[in-house]
Structures are given as C-alpha cells and as structure tokens.
Amino acid sequence: MIEIKGSIEKIIYRNEDNGYTVARMNSEEEDFVIVGSCAEMKVSMNYILQGDFIFHKKYGEQFQFKDIKRILPESSEGIIRYLSSGVFPYIGEKTAKAIYETFRENSLKIIEENPDRLIEVEGIGEVKLSRIKENISKNRGLRDLMLFMNKYDISNSQAVKIYKQYGDDSINIIRENPYKLAEDIRGIGFKKADEIALKLGSIDKNYRAGAALKYTLFKAAFEGHSFLPKDVLIKNTRKLINIEEEDLYKEVFNLTLDDRFFIEKSHENELNCYYAPYLRAENYISGKLKRMLDYKYDKIENIDELIEKVQQRQKIEFAKKQLEAVKAAVDNGVLIITGGPGTGKTTTLKGIIEVFELLDMNVKLTAPTGRAAKRMKEATSRDAMTIHRLLEIGFSDDERINYDYEEENILDCDVLIVDEVSMVDLILMNTLLYSLKDDTRLILVGDKDQLPSVGAGNVLFDLIESGVIPTVNLDEIFRQSEESMIIKNAHLINKGQMPILTNSKDFFMISENIESNSAEIILDLVNRRLPDYYGVDKRDIQVLCPMKKGNVGVQNLNRKLQGILNPEGKEIKYMNEIFRVGDKVMHIKNNYNLEYKIESDFYIEEGEGIFNGDIGYIEEIDEEEQEVFVRYDDVKLVKYEYDDLDELMLAYACTIHKSQGSEFDIVIIPVHFAPPMLLTRNLIYTAVTRAKKIVVLVGNTKYLKQMIDNNLISKRYSNLKEKLMKNDLSC
Q1: How many structural domains comprise the chain?
Q2: CATH number of the domain enclosing 394
Q3: Shared-domain flag, residues 302 and 390
Q4: Residue 382 DSSP symbol
Q5: Which of 587, 599, 567 is nearest to 628 (CA)?
Q6: Beta strands across the sheet bearing 471-474
Q7: CA distances from 247 to 192, 238, 636 (A)
Q8: Are residues 452 and 518 in the same domain?
Q9: Which element (helix H / strand E) includes 146?
Q10: pTM of the model
Q11: Residue 727 has pLDDT above 60, yes or no
Q12: What percent of the chain has pLDDT over 90?
C-alpha cells in the first residue's frame, strides 16, 4: 500500500450513514481526489492515508484509502484552524485564538490531557468549560464506538444514536446483549442485531429464540397491535430467523419469565401474547369505563331550561343530533361524540361546556397534541392543554410514560372533555382514566374515520364498536359548511365516492401521470402559482405526502422546496440533512423536557414541552456555541444543541400521518402509486380534512380512485372491544 500525507481542500461528497467520502486533498507534490470510508473528515485538517491509486472510468485517477489517521497541526494557524473546525464543540474561532494565546504550542496537549486548565483562558467560564469537557469525553467515546461498530457494518449515524442511548457504556452493553439494539435503537432491526450477536461469539439457541420473540412483540406494538396470537407470533418470528417451529413454541412459554411479557387465554381458548403494559391497559380501561358508566348521578330536572338559555346566549338552535349530544353528556358518565368536518362538533362542544358551567361544574378541556389543544382553545374560548401537561406526565428518554399513580394526582374536575381522541393510544388512555374519579363525566370527541393512533391499540374504534359506550354520531352538514367544497368532498370521499373536481376554487386536481413532473408542478404551486393567484403567504402552504420516499415523497420534496424557498443563508449539515436559517422544520419526537421561552414587551414566560409534529422556523444558528434556535407558533423560542438535531426534520412537506391534529390554510397532496397500505380511504380523507381553505391534488385520478375504493383498515390485534363487552368486567 502507498502512504500519502496532505490537507483536505474540499469534501465533494459524504454519506453520513456509511461514512463513504469523496474529497479533494492537497499534498506537497500534487492535488488529487481521495475516496473511502471514515468516521469523520474535516476541511483544512491534515491526514495520513494508506491505500492505492485506482482509475475510475468516469472520474479518472483517484486514491482509494484503506486507513486514515489525523495529523495534529503544529503551526499557530493550523492549531487555531483545527480547534475551531467543529472537532471540539463550543470552541469557535474567537475561543480558539484565546486558547492558543494562553497555551501556545501546548494547546492541543492541554485539551486532550488536562482540559480543566481551559478555565485559565479568557472567555471560558465554568459553564462553558463543563460543556467543552463533556463533549471532549463524548467525542472520544463516540469515536471508539464508531470504530467498534464499523466491524459490524453499522453506520456512523446509527452509532451516534447508540451513543445517545447508552453513552460511554455502549460497547459493554452491546457485547453483553446485542439484541438490545433491536429493542432500543430505531433503524436497527433484529436481523442486524442477530448478525452482531453471531459475530461476537456463541449464542445460546434458546436465548436467541427468546430475543426474536420479544423483538417481534415490540415490533407489533410499534405497528399498532396490543398483542399477537401465539401462532401469529411464531409465524412472524420465523420470518426473522431460521429456527425450528417446535423450538419457538417451547420458548413462547418462557416469555413470562421476563415480567415485561404476559400470555392471556382468550374466550376462544387462544393464547394471546402481550407486552405487559398493553394487557394492563386493556384491563384497566375496560374496568374503569364500566365503573364510570355505572355511576348514578342526581337527575338534572331543569336541563331543558338550561339548554334554552345556552341557545339564546349563542343565538343558535341546536339540531336534533346536537341536542341529543348535549343531553347525553349530562346524563352519562362517559359519552362519545363523533362526526366529520362541518357537522357542528364545535357548536355542540360549546353548548355542552356552557350547560355544565351553568350547573357550576368544573370543566377541563384537553387533547393529545399541542396543535389540537391550541385549536380547541381557539374554538371554545376556554383554556385547553395537552393530556401530558394536564396530568403532569413525565417521559423517559425512550418516550415511555413516567406517571406517578398516586391519589393526590387525581384530577380535580367534574367534567373532562377530550378532543381528537382518535389519536389517543392504549397507554395514554389508561393514564388518563387513572387520573379520573369514578364520578367524573368523560366526553370523548373525535372523527372515527380518521387514521388511528400511531401508538398501540385502536381505542376510539373499539369503544364505539363495543356498543357499550353511549355514542352520538353527528352526520348533518350545516348550511354554511355546504358552501365549502373541501367539506363536501371530504364527505363524498368518506362515503366511497369520487370528489367533485370541476369548477371549484377551493378544491381541484392537476392531472399528471409522471411522478417527476408532478414534483415540478408541486414546486411551482408552492413557489409561484398559489401565492400569485390567491395572494397567500408561502408559509401557509403545506405539502402532505402518503410516502417518505420517491419523487413525490417527503424527502425529495423537502430537499427541492428548500432549494427554491430558502436556497441561501447560514447553514449546518447534520447527518444527511442541511438546516438553514429560515427553514421550515418539524419536531419529530415528543420531548416533554425541552425548554422554550416566550418573550414580549411586558413579560418573559418559560415552559417545557415540544411535541411530535410541531412546526416552526429556524431563526438562528450559533456556530460558536453549536446551537440552533427554532421559533414555534410565532412565539415559543427553543434552543437545540447540535446533538439534538435528530429531533428535527425539514417540514415544507410531511407525511399525512404526521399532520394528524393539525390544520393548514392550503394543502397540496401528491397522488401516485404507493403500496396498498398507503392507498387507503382514511389516509386521503385525513389529508383532505387538514385543509381550511384550499386543497390541491396533483397526480393520477386512477390512484385517487384506488384510495377511495380501498376502505380496508389494517387489522390491529386488540382485545379492548371484547373486554368492554364482557359482563364480568374487572381491573
């Protein structure tokens, strides 16, 4: 092999997933292109490479390196440039110069061997020193982990996720139980964890089978199931590993040796295998709701007078179903109100609230997401908050609920109204019900035809289908709503009929059979046509996609829309994403501990909690402190450390699933070929009902018809409905 030395002039291409890099290097003799994989590479840094020259028929001569080592600089300019290159977070050019002025040629040695001495540098206080030291330690640990994981074909970006999860214990944890990677690290499946386990050494056959069964149950919960029947569990597990069915049958019964898993016999004598929290949730929800339904309230004698008073205040007259809903809310411990857009849910809700207020009852309003709670507050002119904030729920790093189930945490309210309940999963409903007294009236409001919750369970569907919970379905479209083609077409779609696509300014389709052409049309709609024709702000336009990948998928459209709408400005590259000041971004992971600040001329308010699906704009990128500032809802300013940027994605386009609970003035929806599970009626219905003013479909009417015709809802294994229907409910 040949050894060469030089500095990196330019990084031409880098794939953060596998570390593959193409760069231009300057050596003393000549400049040339280098190619190969490495954990990191920085412009202006010096390296020693070992490898060979190759000839690429398209790109010419290149040096393909097999090994790479960084050469620490010795000149003042080199040391300052190296310190401020990004290798050491929180050290920018100004701080780098101050360090060099203090320690001269010993600067790098001090940082690596005795970083506490950095306190001697002007401008470095205790807080900054702590951050620098923490990141020096982390970078050292991360580099070690990257080298370790490289042997198992784990990408650098995945290594970063692993390090964030396990910290300096990462390598020890993986050696002890590599299957934890499949449980804890999104993007690493069982097959990869199993491959690592086999390479690490001998694995007990039974242990391996048990790990595969557990992973299959975790994966099932991620897909919305609260359990898997034993035969389905074994069938799905055998798709993962080549193991005898008999061996898996034996190991199924050993699952219960781990208290995280449970096996329950169904009324048909089938064995259902649960991740234990979902079994406990099903049992508690069914028993609690039965007790709430059985509670005997004092009869409200003057209910008709109260309703009349509310109608006079609001200057309305309730329709038949609305009147039924108001009375049912007073008479029942639990009530479900469901209905599509334009059917008067908000009017009904306001009426119910006012009736209870006239009865001097304490009413609280809540919703599963910040966006839904905000809309609820605007619609009712009453305070509303997220379920998590209402219950003061904490979350662990893996988003599992930390809730103190103590009596003092019981909610002090007579009536609790929950909106957008289709988004509430088993665990959240369980936690919510645990916080309620048996005599609290619970009113659940939602659209049963929207997408189900992302988390496990099919709560709203099961509650309605059981027939146990009193339910009022608002199905009359009111006159003012009939003028909206969005509402009219949403109901047509929900009935399995094609929408009206002619002579409408608020709902239309641009036909295009070629995906790449549709992508260009969408770019033009966002950047020029819709803003020019309707006089709207580009910020009020949202592209909602069925898929993440492809020409009309989220990833491609985000890159292209960023290039058109925000092509220049201060930027940072994180993994495979580029973020710029001014970019529209979405927070993609519930973070209940993330701090925000709201500043006005009169006060400063501080709080915690940014939610999955919240959309904001990048206001500032601080390279010196390695921080990114995002403004949400035009008021909340949130600071992200560079290491937290995996919680952000560009949001010029997002998936329809991510849009649940949100509303946008204008929605553009690409309609092209997709897997059958993404060509469904409830998906297109959910997308259309996100729009307040205009819907634009772009694509092929053939696939639009396929979506509308496909009313098959993916089966979710859940026993909540059956448990609600049983007479001997207990918890």
Answers
A1: 3
A2: 3.40.50.300
A3: yes
A4: S
A5: 587
A6: 384-386, 363-367, 415-418, 441-446, 334-339, 471-474
A7: 21, 11, 55
A8: no
A9: helix 126-150
A10: 0.79
A11: no
A12: 54
